[in-house]
Amino acid sequence: MPTAKSPAAPLPKNSRRALNRDRLEADIAAEAVRVFAECGYEGTSIATVAENAGLSKQNLMYYFPSKQALYQRVLDNVLDEWLERMENLADPSQEPQDVLRAYVQAKLRFSREQPWASRVYAMEVIGGAPLYGAQIQNRVVPLLRKDIDVFEHWIAAGKIAPINATHLLFAIWAMTQSYADFSTQMALVLGRKQLTRKDFDDGEKLIVDMVLAAIRVQPPAPLSAAD
């Protein structure tokens, strides 16, 4: 009776083999993103991803032993980038207007440059996050709380108007991610095959203006003569 293979010893982090493996895994994940976005989790096969990546199914499964492992890697990549942006947001040393402008810009840039990745994440969430819900809760919630603390600090310092920071962030996510997840609808309405760079620039200006208007501290009303 054949015995199970022992797991390979981890490679030194900066060895050539480790770097080559990281590069190949990244290439596989890049191919998988589009297939998952087009076919969904259930409709995606390892064989299709392997063929698109120029590998045999057996070779691909050496790096990702199951479809779920590959799917997890794809979603990890999306969440890693998203959380990096949120980490930058939780910086009380910067001015709120600069931080929020940069955050909107970064989120729209991700939607423009990696629409397939955004759609895979959206499909998982729309489906109730059956395979990734725990990771979202464990990783997003603590950082969201840090961001909220920064907003509360800004409010207490009089830098921004009192606002429900949680729902402001929800609104930013919805507005920016829609440029990836619903780009087909937007392009159809605009009468073109796909969104252009100008569409993203126009969207960025409007979203930034709306967000900054929402946090702007209103000057006190002038005293009337009766006062």
TrEMBL record:
Q: Where does the HTH tetR-type domain lie?
A: 22-82
One Pfam family here: TetR_N
What keyword terms does UniProt attach to this protein? DNA-binding
Q: Which GO terms describe its molecular function?
A: DNA-binding transcription factor activity; transcription cis-regulatory region binding
Domain of life, per UniProt, equals: Bacteria
Name a single GO biological process: negative regulation of DNA-templated transcription
DNA-binding region range list: 45-64
Q: Which PANTHER family match?
A: HTH-TYPE TRANSCRIPTIONAL REGULATOR RUTR
The protein depicted here goes by the name TetR family transcriptional regulator C-terminal domain-containing protein
Its source organism is: Rugamonas brunnea
